[in-house]
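Hi support team,

I submitted a single chain yesterday and got back a structure, but I'm not sure I'm reading the token output correctly. Could someone confirm the output below corresponds to the sequence I sent? I've pasted both exactly as they appear in my results page.

Thanks,
R.
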Amino acid sequence: MSADPIRLLKTKGFDKSRWMQLPRDVVIGHDVLGQVPEVCADICLEDSAMVFYGTNTRRYAGDRVVSLLEGKYSVSTFTVREMSMETIKEAEEASRGAGFIVGVGGGRIIDCAKIVSYNLDRPFLSIPTAASHDGIASARASVPVGDGNASLEAQPPMGIVADTAIIAAAPHRLLAAGCADVISNSTAVLDWEFAYRLRHEVLSEYAIALSRMTAELLMKNARSIKPHSEESAWMVTKALVSSGVAMSIAGSSRPASGGEHKFGHALERLAQGKVLHGEACGIGTIIVMYLHGGDWRGIRAALRAIGAPTTPRELGIDDEVAVEALLAARTIRPERFTILDTGLTRESATELVRMLYEE
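Hi R., thanks for writing in. Yes, this is the structure output for that exact sequence:
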């Protein structure tokens, strides 16, 4: 009997796809700034370079990066004096003729460079002078909007050159803030899993595993993080890069940004100029871990060991400001569901801030 009349449904093949952009070259260590030209050559960066730096980071590393590149590229420079939409527009206009962009500095300089590289579709090289947050490796950038900041999609770096001698020389407060930013991954992934269970949000187990492991390793070694230590700078920078990679794998900032970040952004908005991003997120992590029923005291102990603040008082902020930040957290990225979006009252928010001081 012929099988010709039989019609079988064709088995559908696996067609899921995702475009992930990850740093291609990552160089971390003592006096690695001199390897910038080799990194540029390895990732096939050509034509002219635009180097972004700040007034201080120019002295620490910017001028040296320019001199290293001038032998092989036509180099222009742009000084990022403040992070604003006007500065971004000016930087974009100045960079239109550049073949690639280099960001030398801290958070605002790296963020400005990655936004401009994204808008102009240019390769981007990240050269951090401080390890204060995971933006040195991620595809997200913080931009001032109104009376706060917005987290926007941007260009991830094709290469990262992190000189631990330079990073270790920065104020310890910056390194401690970077540690707190990484430790906040521990609650970010809990909130992501929470959203998966309650809202069926798509999650990435690989990104969660990497993000959680990075936070746990840093907490385990919290007592080893010392001021102006290159070994500490190396450990924290590696963790920040891993956190950025987790976000690239996920295709969003979910592995490193949950309720603790929503609280952190609200606190930054309410106490402008008094708190670093990582510091605010660290305090938020203690609170969110408490709400999830996890080891919030362990989080607090790790932050204390590192030298990061664990209470509003340590930041010179009134407790009531932190209460307002908790209540305002649900207005930050409302599309991102976290445990802080489940109906926090003023009374419970007040108790949560009071809990920070408990021994």
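A quick pointer for reading it: The first strand starts at residue 25 and ends at 29. Let us know if anything else looks off.

Best,
Support desk
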